[in-house]
Amino acid sequence: MIRAAGAILRKDLRLELRTKESVPAMTLFTLTVYVLFHFGLDRDSLDGELAAGVLWVTLLLAAVIGVSRLFAAEREQGGIDALLLAPIDRTSLFLAKASALFLFLVAVELVAVPAFGLLLLGPDLGGTLPELPAILLLGNLGVAAVGALVAALAAETRARELIVPLLLLPLLVPVLISCAQATEPLLRQEQGPEDLGRWLGLLTLYDVVFVLLCVAVFDYLLED
Amino acid sequence: MYSKGFMPLATATVVALTTALALAFFYAPLDADQGFVQKIFYVHVPMAIVALGGFVAGGVMGILHLRSGDPSWDLRSYVAIHLSVILGSGVLITGAIWAKASWGHWWVWDEPVLVSFLVVFLLYCVYYPLRFSIEDPERQARYSSVFAIVAGAFVPLNFVAVRMAETFTHPRVLSQTGGSLPGEMRLTFLVSLLAMALLFVTLWKLELTAKHASMQLKRLRRRLDARVTA
To answer: Fewer CB atoms < 10 Å away: N or C end of chain B?
Structure first.
């Protein structure tokens, strides 16, 4: 199962490296949203709650693009039939797609978060160093699991472009809450009281529940 | 098929609803703080509890459908979610009225129960576009069940998350000590809850029977058409 998942993941990564479709688009999108927030809020620098909110809303909106493109190659080229015919567990397909999305998100954040520090953030980004990457990784895990499931759910519907954001964003509200609340004290001008453990706990709970749930129900999708 | 025991159930619903209304208006004492408007509590809270129960029940029926492959479980799950969405809009409207009357605003964001209910409601509204944009009936049933299960698990998790994020203002009616409700109010509340649950089950059965009948009618029409053209 792990080998099959690895093979599909390698295929997806190679495809992304050659076509350069999802990650550059997602990164560009985050920069555009920063510009929108700059004018929409009419602020040159953000800190605290506002900064955490802008950062996480931008990242989640960028994730929507990645999720709606996740099965694009399979759908357009008919590769999904070959994957379904292959004698492999469906779970490996889920693992591969979720890992691909996870890596895409990491790649986007490598540009988008420093860009946020440069363009909008008031306090120095260096002060957030050990904690922020941990929050980002835990958040990505939840987004990747739910995103792969939503992508598979929406792949077979007619109104795909419509279903993905409508379905994904409400499901990610707990991720937004815990990530934004955990990030907020790190982005304040003066260091305030932190409540990191509580929010990371909630985030971990979310990740565990949804990874297990998605693995359990994914077998029933894409089966014909 | 679905209409077994419908008459006694419908009668029980009517009796329970009448009793609940009578108790709410004539038996339960007026709230010292909020006065008459507090009576909306006997509609709003049971409705919310029954709607959330319906969402979770829809998820359980989704599991049963995936395990057994029996399409009637998908129909049950669909009708349960459909009714819960309708009740959900009732909850949001009555909640807004109550909030306006007792807190002075139509919508209060520092109110975890209201906000998490809105998120859940928004999520379940997507059930319709998802379900009806899949044509193949077998796949439609399977995908809808997957949605019902995931969303059903999301309901409690979302409540935990939102509750942690907001400060408390909502009266906690159902805490373990029985809350701060005096005896008469609690009795009225429990009867209203029972009445609402019975109403839900009655409507659920009615809708299932109607859907089943119209499906059978369609099948018969198709057979008749086939015979006429042949």
So the answer is: C
